[in-house]
Amino acid sequence: MGLLGVCPPYSHRSLHYLHKLLHLSAIFFMESNQPSLHDPKFTVPISDVEQQANQLDLETKEFDYTKRSQWLRAAVLGANDGLVSTASLMMGVGAVKQDIKAMILTGFAGLVAGACSMAIGEFVSVYSQLDIEVAQMKRDKRRVGRGESKEKEEEGEKENLPNPVQAAAASALAFSVGAMVPLLAASFIKEYKVRLGVLISAVTVALIVFGWLGAVLGKAPSFRSSMRVLIGGWLAMAITFGLTKIIGSSGL
User: Fold this and answer.
1) pTM of the shown model
2) Distance in angstroms (rounded) separating the CA atoms of residues 107 and 92
3) Mean pLDDT of the region 218-237
């Protein structure tokens, strides 16, 4: 046909193919702009709960329980020493004398003497450690020299130095707490055999509690620690009671 006639048949087919080509190009363009999971720039956000849980797990794993060993040892040793020594003294006096007044006075004297001894011993020990650390800090300062960063480190080290007065007070307090257990257990019982039974029972419970508490704070096996403290306390009271009974019955 001429120019004013209808378009030839192949023109409709060409327009159909052109339409498909434009549609496929648009789809390809849209998919290419979307991020992919395999793209290194694409990151999946982690929730705040998971981050906090991971942080708590990391802090738990990094915590060093050996940092507690010094003050834990002093507290447990002081309380256990006060408990065992005062109870042993009262048992020893009770082996030869059934008077309740004699037992209470003996226990009170043991409490005061033991608390003073623990405080003085801890003060001298920690003060000696303080002198050694201060002398070492002075040697390091002379060897390295002074500077702003060094002065800040020195201030931080001074804050971490041991306190002799605080250590002495803590030891005396721990000893007194332990010594109060047998004193309170035997103060209001006049019957001799009942008094000894209540004294032994109260000390036994306190020994188990002190051993368990030390194990829990130090993340150690609680059963073995409690049994170790309990058996040691029983041996101390039994030896003191037995030897005092033998010497008292011999008439010396």
Assistant:
1) 0.64
2) 10
3) 88
